[in-house]
Amino acid sequence: MPKAQFITVTEAEAGQKLLQYLERRLKGDVPRSAIQRWIRKGQVRVDKGRKKPFDRIEAGQMVRIPPYTPGEDKTASSVGTLDIAHEEKHLLVVAKPAGLAAHGGDKIEDSVVARLNAMFKGADFMPTLAHRLDRDTSGLLLAAKDYATLRDLNDRFASGDIGKVYLAWVKGNWRETDTVLLEDLLEKQGAPGEEKVRTGSGKEALARVTGLVAGDQYSLVAVRLLTGRTHQIRVQLASRKHPVVGDRKYGKGNDRGAMRLHCFAMRVADATFSLPPNWTGKWSVPDKALQQALALLFD
User: Fold this and answer.
1) CATH number of the domain at 5-65, please?
2) Which residues are marked as active site?
């Protein structure tokens, strides 16, 4: 028979709402509705007292979790591993490959989140993504290793305090010799399952684009994101007749192969992280272009 658990809140977990804490601790074994019912009925106790779902917990508090039967462990062998570009006490910088979803969902079992759960099984606080990348976009993803860091990263992303530079091969000859500011209004439109982001209305989207390599058929550009809208880079470039190579949603024609969009560099406070794309052949990025792109973080 399952028994009640008594768990001491660690420093890494401190500051979370009780409901968040339990969801992370139970790792999907118990649905949110059941956890809320436990809390409502007083089956969950914090230092022997009742709490509400959104009360915040502190380090050193003792949480009672009632007996339950865990669900089947789905993370054991169904997912692969991840390359970690950088790791420190409070932060992971993940090297996300193209084609891997950041988060799971309907019919998506393998994802960055699922792989982190498998790699860090048993951690007090499961490394949690602070942002996302489109499935077919490669590059840097930040994951917090404790709740205080997650809140800090969320606040920094919301205020635009994190610098982000992307590399993209686009169709056509990018003729601009100077950095240009792209300004648009973007809004998701269309029926469920067929939605696209379109320009002309919605939320403001800002980005600075710098040409790095200009060719007759394809050009390499660096994009310094100033806002973080859904599909922003892809839509803004495609609307100017320079769709990202391999973008079958917003580009024209039947492109084959991977989408050539990569989150290359990020700046968080005084720390800078960079990860060159693993593109080869005609899509290789010259060292000079990498240096130019990295410098854009400091403009």
Assistant:
1) 3.10.290.10
2) 134
